[in-house]
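User: Design a sequence. Structure:
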């Protein structure tokens, strides 16, 4: 960036920060601009400014700590204490192991420095002595104790320091230090953590080295009992920790983990607090990185954290952290205000107890919690117990909170909780009605389109007897474009009934009628436009999905050639060919008319069994208390609703509403920007926020897709195809919570994530689904067998590219990289693939190759035949299959396949949803054995999967194989049983082999049963 441009941008950012100091995005921009200018002083100014107003992650604090360390003389007690102050301030914002480790290292380093001085400074005193340093180190370690996965990092560092102190100590001090370290070890054994076995081993070694041998066994038994509960607590959460790590410590994973922990009958306070601290730290890092939804996640984490620790009691420092971290959350501020009220009530109750009233602490605390928001302050004022300072503090906190909420978020608090609190205080307690009027006079214009703000403003005007100003406000705002003007009209009508004259009432009714007519006209026009747009889009989609037929002028006997339209929803050409039965359905019907006239073309409409995609709207940004009844009331005038499904996400609540008829959708779309429980919602067609993504790298899985597309918006769902019949399918459907996110993500279309592999990203269109599916992939894909082990992809490309463009070549290779003898060649078009069948029997690398179409269902359709192992195909498949149980409800086969193929060679998976079970078929029995013998758990959706051998016979959820046909077929003799000479029973065919009728079994009925036992005796003579 040019220096003058950077300076202008920096000046503009500083100007905006002067009026909006609590905006995280502005501070991030300020830091980024300072770094681009490569001015260290400016960078430090930007970093310090951010830490003065908001809570910041370790990326901001670490450079400040380094700068403070370099600027101070840490060889003096004063300089070292100055740096320690920065560490303490940094650790108040978020849990950061980088800062905590650095803090421990600094303490150990300064302790070593000051302990080695021959002449101690006069100001040193107890600073950096063994006891002083030990106390500070233990405090630092305790700040990370709640992270049961990583707390050992800090504790090990502290424990090693204690061992060094023990080694250097004199003999007379060692017994005391041994007791200190023993207590540290025993306390650690009682804390749940990942390395509990290592800690137990450390205690065993320490006891061996520093305790009498006679006490060893009893001490170890006692320690084992002490740690048993902590071990169990960690083991309960080990699966959740593994799931969290596998999810890349995403905010969704943290929210799921926290919710599960809150549902426990007796949640562990240390672990749950640690979870909230970890989630907040991760949300802060992501918010500073610009991730959408991270700010909302921070607010939700704080609300849950506050509610959890509320009963434990928190000091003011906790609340300062919360308001610094989430300055734009009205819920956090409301809880802070209630905390101040409880503190005031507690002081009042203490005074009453001193006066001799018998009221216990618990009863006083329960009474304080049961009071309303204003009761404590009201009682204090009425009783004359308040000196004015606490109420002044309360007013200041609320006023600052309102300012911070408006600065931190443009939408503010739609429920105006802080404004209502302060207004009621002005009116009821402070008796300053003009202050309440002034408050709403500034609030209503700030939220100019909010009916709730204007109604609250007029309500205060009415209560303070400013009737003329209230009437003028009603008149001015009655024709404005409010989000719910009906509420304002009702308030105006009620006002005139209560305080107006007959003429003013009639005038109000007349103006309301006019405004209502204008509103209905505008809404009808908007609905008409929305319907016309949807109808035009639908017509365009229908036209795009129909074949274009040209009738040659040579006569009606000329063949008709349908040409499929190839347009998609986005401006990228997409090539698709249809085949078989679908193609036959799409061909126009040619009917003869009388008189030998030209044939009449009839194009049958494309029909969907249940038009779910076109009949469903997506409802986003719902309030947390929204119910199915709310949505039914909202869409009651749109059409009959078939189904409503809610999905609660970490950041928001969303829902899908499916109608019986697609004609209901245009009317439903007009509900966009309406309000439910005073919260504005978004309504859009579900498929408009859905992307069809394909041709991404083979190594990509669900997490990779979410990481790639998560930068464009909040992801609602990712749906993966089943690989039951075709393991090479590589596409997915990704749905955002808003269409704008999907449109932004289209910039990924055509981007090469790997050399010569450009990802395809298109808006999903249900009318064009058949063009995007791989249903005709078998007609474009060839199976090439009989390859030499020295054959390469380039060899195959040279052979087959002469027939047409090749989309992909997949050569099966072993671990050494040599060919397994077969490959798949995927052509761009079906015609080219058919032409390439001519390569059958072609000589490549001194081997004759076999070329056929790939048929993914050939194994399912073929009858049972004996394989090289002597088993039938079904029996052989069963030998390499494993039954999986405890699968979470709603699990996608594609996701299960992805999870398993990270550890094993998987051929196919099939889920039986009714049983929450699945069967996975692996490449060979050895892989199946590896899976069955695996000791480490495999976790899916928080459930630990259970594996067992697949039993013979029909599997649960699977139909039994059909009996073999015996009539009208030629069956080779080798496949059936035939009588042999000699004694004993006839030899049975191999397991799984097809039972074919012998020549005796197909004799005519009249020949059967003629000879009996007597005839056999006669034959023996």
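Assistant: Done.
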């Amino acid at each position: 960036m040019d220096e003058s441009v950077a300076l202008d941008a920096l000046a503009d950012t500083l100007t905006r920060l002067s009026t909006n100091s609590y905006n995280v995005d502005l501070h991030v921009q300020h830091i980024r601009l300072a770094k681009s200018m490569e001015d260290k002083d400016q960078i430090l100014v930007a970093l310090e400014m951010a830490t003065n107003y908001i809570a910041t992650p370790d990326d901001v604090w670490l450079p400040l700590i380094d700068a403070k360390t370099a600027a101070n003389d840490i060889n003096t007690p004063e300089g070292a204490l100055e740096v320690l102050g920065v560490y303490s301030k940094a650790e108040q914002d978020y849990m950061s192991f980088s800062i905590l480790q650095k803090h421990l290292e600094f303490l150990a380093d300064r302790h070593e420095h000051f302990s080695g001085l021959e002449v101690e400074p006069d100001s040193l005193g107890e600073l950096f002595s063994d006891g002083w340093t030990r106390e500070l180190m233990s405090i630092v370690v305790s700040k990370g104790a709640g992270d049961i996965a990583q707390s050992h990092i800090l504790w090990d560092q502290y424990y090693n320091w204690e061992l060094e102190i023990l080694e250097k100590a004199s003999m007379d001090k060692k017994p005391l230090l041994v007791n200190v370290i023993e207590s540290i070890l025993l306390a650690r054994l009682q804390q749940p953590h990942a390395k509990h076995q290592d800690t137990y081993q450390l205690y065993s070694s320490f006891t061996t080295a520093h305790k009498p041998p006679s006490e060893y066994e009893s001490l170890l038994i006692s320690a084992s009992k002490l740690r048993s509960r902590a071990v169990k607590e960690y083991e309960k959460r080990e699966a959740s920790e593994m799931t969290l790590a596998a999810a890349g410590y995403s905010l969704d994973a943290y929210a799921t983990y926290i919710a599960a922990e809150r549902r426990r009958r007796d949640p562990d306070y240390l672990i749950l607090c640690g979870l909230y601290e970890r989630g907040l730290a991760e949300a802060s890092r992501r918010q500073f990185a610009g991730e959408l939804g991270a700010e909302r996640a921070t607010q939700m984490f704080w609300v849950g954290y506050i509610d959890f620790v509320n009963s434990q009691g928190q000091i003011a420092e906790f609340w300062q952290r919360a308001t610094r971290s989430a300055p734009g959350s009205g819920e956090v501020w409301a809880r802070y205000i209630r905390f101040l009220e409880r503190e005031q009530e507690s002081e009042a109750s203490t005074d009453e107890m001193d006066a001799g009233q018998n009221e216990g602490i618990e009863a006083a605390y329960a009474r304080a919690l049961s009071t309303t928001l204003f009761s404590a302050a009201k009682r204090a004022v009425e009783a004359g117990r308040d000196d004015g300072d606490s109420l002044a503090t309360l007013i200041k906190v609320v006023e600052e909170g309102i300012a911070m909420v408006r600065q931190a978020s443009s939408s503010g608090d739609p429920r105006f909780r802080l404004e209502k609190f302060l207004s009621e205080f002005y009116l009821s307690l402070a008796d300053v009605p003009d202050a309440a009027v002034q408050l709403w006079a500034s609030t209503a214009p700030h939220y100019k389109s909010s009916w709730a703000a204007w109604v609250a403003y007029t309500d205060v005007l009415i209560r303070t007897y400013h009737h003329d100003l209230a009437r003028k406000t009603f008149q001015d705002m009655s024709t404005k474009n409010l989000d719910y003007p009906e509420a304002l009209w009702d308030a105006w009508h009620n006002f005139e009934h209560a305080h107006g004259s007959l003429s003013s009432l009639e005038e109000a009714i007349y103006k309301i009628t006019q405004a209502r007519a204008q509103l209905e006209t505008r809404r009808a026009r908007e609905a008409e436009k929305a319907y016309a747009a949807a109808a035009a889009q639908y017509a365009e989609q229908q036209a795009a999905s129909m074949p274009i037929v040209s009738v040659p002028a040579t006569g009606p006997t000329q063949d008709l050639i349908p040409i499929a339209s190839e347009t998609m929803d986005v401006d990228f050409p997409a090539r698709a060919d249809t085949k078989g039965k679908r193609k036959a359905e799409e061909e126009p019907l040619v009917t003869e008319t009388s008189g030998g006239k030209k044939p009449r073309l009839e194009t049958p409409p494309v029909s969907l069994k249940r038009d779910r995609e076109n009949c469903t709207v997506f409802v986003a940004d719902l309030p947390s208390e929204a119910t199915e009844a709310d949505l039914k009331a909202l869409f009651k005038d749109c059409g009959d609703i078939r189904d409503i499904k809610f999905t609660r996400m970490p950041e928001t609540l969303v829902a899908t509403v499916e109608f019986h008829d697609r004609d209901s959708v245009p009317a439903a779309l007009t509900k966009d920007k309406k309000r439910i429980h005073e919260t504005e919602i978004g309504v859009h067609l579900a498929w408009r926020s859905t992307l069809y993504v394909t041709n991404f790298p083979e190594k990509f899985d669900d997490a990779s897709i979410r990481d790639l597309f998560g930068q464009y918006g909040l992801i609602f769902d990712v749906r993966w195809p089943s690989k039951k019949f075709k393991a090479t399918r590589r596409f997915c459907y990704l749905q955002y919570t808003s269409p704008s996110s999907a449109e932004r993500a289209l910039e990924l279309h055509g981007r090469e994530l790997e050399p010569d592999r450009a990802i395809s990203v298109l808006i999903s269109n249900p009318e064009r689904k058949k063009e995007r599916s791989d249903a005709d992939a078998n007609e474009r894909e060839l199976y090439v067998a009989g390859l030499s082990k020295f054959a390469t992809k380039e060899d195959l490309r040279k052979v087959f590219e002469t027939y047409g463009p090749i989309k992909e070549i997949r050569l099966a290779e072993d671990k050494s990289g040599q060919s397994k003898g077969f490959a798949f060649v995927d052509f761009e078009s079906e015609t080219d693939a058919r032409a390439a069948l001519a390569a059958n029997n072609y000589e490549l690398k001194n081997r004759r190759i076999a070329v056929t179409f790939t048929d993914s269902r050939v194994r399912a359709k073929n009858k049972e035949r004996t394989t090289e192992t002597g088993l039938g195909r079904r029996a052989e498949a069963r030998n390499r299959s494993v039954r999986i149980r405890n699968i979470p409800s709603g699990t996608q086969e594609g996701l299960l396949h992805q999870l398993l193929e990270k550890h094993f060679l998987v051929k196919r998976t099939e889920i039986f949803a009714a049983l929450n079970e699945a069967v996975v078929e692996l490449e060979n029995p050895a892989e199946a054995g590896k899976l069955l013998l695996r000791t480490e758990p495999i976790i899916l959706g928080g459930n630990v999967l259970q594996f067992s051998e697949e039993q013979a016979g029909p599997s649960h959820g699977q139909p039994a194989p059909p009996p073999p046909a015996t009539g009208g077929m030629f069956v080779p003799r080798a496949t059936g049983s035939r009588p042999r000479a000699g004694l004993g029973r006839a030899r049975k065919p191999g397991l799984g082999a097809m039972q074919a009728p012998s020549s005796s079994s197909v004799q005519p009925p009249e020949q059967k049963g003629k000879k009996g036992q007597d005839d056999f005796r006669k034959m023996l003579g």
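The chain has a mean pLDDT of 77. Residues 502-545 form the longest helix (44 residues).
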